[in-house]
Design goal:
Elements: E1 3-4, E2 19-22, H1 28-36, H2 39-44, H3 51-61, E3 65-72, E4 75-85, H4 89-92, E5 94-103, H5 112-126, E6 129-134, H6 141-149
Parallel strand pairs: 5-6
Antiparallel strand pairs: 1-2, 2-3, 3-4, 4-5
Organism: Saccharopolyspora gregorii
Keywords: Acyltransferase, Transferase
Pfam family, one: Acetyltransf_1
């Protein structure tokens, strides 16, 4: 599963290319920090909450989950999660759900996010998924353009029901 990026970085700094690998428990704090590093994440994430450790353990134990990090010299600079969903629709097709794609602020704009998504596409294909889908909050217009540049199409209306209230 681990694969080193082969892209030539577009900005002038000399850097070691990141390695995309399975997340380890030691990465959890950095992952949560990435999730909290935007206007929506600041409202919903709670760095330091012990619930993240239980969630990580559940993800790690589930063979249909792939939580990955982009690691550059021991620093977590990105993360994503893939969930594989077996289904009957589309002649029994497996879907891959892409979630929580985040790149550390000082790494944004250099192509890392695109490399991570292309890697996720390859992982989904490698696991036999026929569809890769994602949801993105309506307010994330830049993210929508990013995904469209990578070939994703707006095809559905997503809806959610908050079960906590």
């Amino acid at each position: 599963m681990d694969a080193q990026f082969t892209r030539t970085w577009s900005y002038g700094r000399t850097m070691t290319p990141p390695v995309l690998r399975s997340a380890a428990e030691a990465d959890l704090s950095a992952i949560v920090d990435l999730l909290a590093d935007d206007p929506l994440g600041r409202l919903r994430e709670k760095p330091g909450d012990p619930a993240y450790a239980a969630a990580f353990a559940a993800i790690e134990a589930d063979p249909n989950q792939l939580l990955a990090v982009a690691d550059r010299d021991g620093e977590i600079v990105g993360t994503l999660q893939l969930t594989f969903i077996p289904g009957l629709s589309h002649a029994g097709a497996t879907r891959a759900q892409l979630e929580a794609v985040r790149v550390r602020e000082d790494e944004r704009g250099n192509g890392l996010g695109g490399e991570m998504v292309r890697w996720a596409v390859a992982q989904a294909r490698g696991r036999g998924a026929r569809i890769l889908q994602l949801t993105s909050n309506n307010s994330r217009e830049r993210a929508h353009r990013f995904y469209e540049r990578l070939g994703f199409e707006r095809s559905h209306v997503g809806m959610k029901l908050d079960l906590t209230g």
